[in-house]
Amino acid sequence: MQLDCRGHALALDAPVVMGVLNVTPDSFSDGGLHASADDAVAHGRRMAEEGAAIIDVGGESTRPGAPAIDTKEELARVIPVIEALARAVAVPISVDPSKPAVMRAAAAAGARIINDVRALRAPGALEAAAATRAAVCLMHMQGEPGDMQADPRYDDVVTEVQGFLAARVEACVDAGIPRERLCIDPGIGFGKRPEHNLALLRSLGVLTRGGRPVLIGVSRKALIGIITGRATGDRLAGSVALAALCAERGVAIVRAHDVAATVDAVKTGAALRSAALQRS
């Protein structure tokens, strides 16, 4: 399987790691650590050296309760970093906006993937993404970052998330975005209680049979803190355990802050999956 990233064919025959590069002051795990463009670019280069197959640049925090920022501020944060990284590393650069103007500017600056937590539901987002020719990751989120964890409810979270993502894929295809440019993300931690997140992780096989690559982001998330009792900065073991599980269950892209450790975990999970498939 491949993902068409504006002419760059990202091979997904084996799972890969997407490195998280937040250029924000308020992201839940690493906000403020890479606020300057130079620091952000240096960290992006390190992640590529550690084995990241994608660098995901974020300019607006989507943590629970995060305030929205305006387009001008988001552009000022991400465009210099994308431009510099696109010259500095060979792997594709991803960007995670929901605003159409940021999508267009980021693609012009060198981004090859749009990673949208709102699954291109903002007015004009479908058209903007189609025009960029970038790959698109469509994520499920119930509510908005400001209120998504207030009271999330589902009758059947797996069926509802699966149906939402399938519908968004079809909306993209209708808007002129080929399936070969699409991947999906169930949105662990985005408008979901711990039991919803665990149900989705248990049922990854349902999502991975849908024909499009699945991306999962579990790195350092609150779910791991609830399970282990660990603070955000002490969740490496839980993060890599879930990364290995995701790879073993067929996830194509694992989004992570700790790239080197996650690359090893993903390789381990993929080897277990390969051995199981050979026995069947």
Report how far apart the termini are.
Answer: 21 Å
Largest sheet: 8 strands, parallel
User: What is the level-2 CATH architecture name?
Assistant: Alpha-Beta Barrel
Return the structural class: alpha/beta
Number of strands: 10
Give the ordered list of helices and strands.
Answer: EEEHEHEHEHEHEHHEHHEH
Plain-language structure description:
There is one protein chain. This protein has 280 residues and is an alpha/beta fold. The mean pLDDT is 91. It has a single domain, classed as Alpha-Beta Barrel (TIM Barrel), CATH 3.20.20.20. Strand 1 (2-5) and strand 2 (8-11) form a beta hairpin. Helix 2 (71-88) packs parallel to helix 3 (100-109), helix 3 (100-109) packs parallel to helix 4 (125-132) and helix 9 packs parallel to helix 10 (259-279). It is globular, with a radius of gyration of 17 Å. An eight-stranded parallel sheet has the order 8-7-6-5-4-3-10-9. A two-stranded antiparallel ribbon has the order 1-2. It is built from ten helices and ten strands.
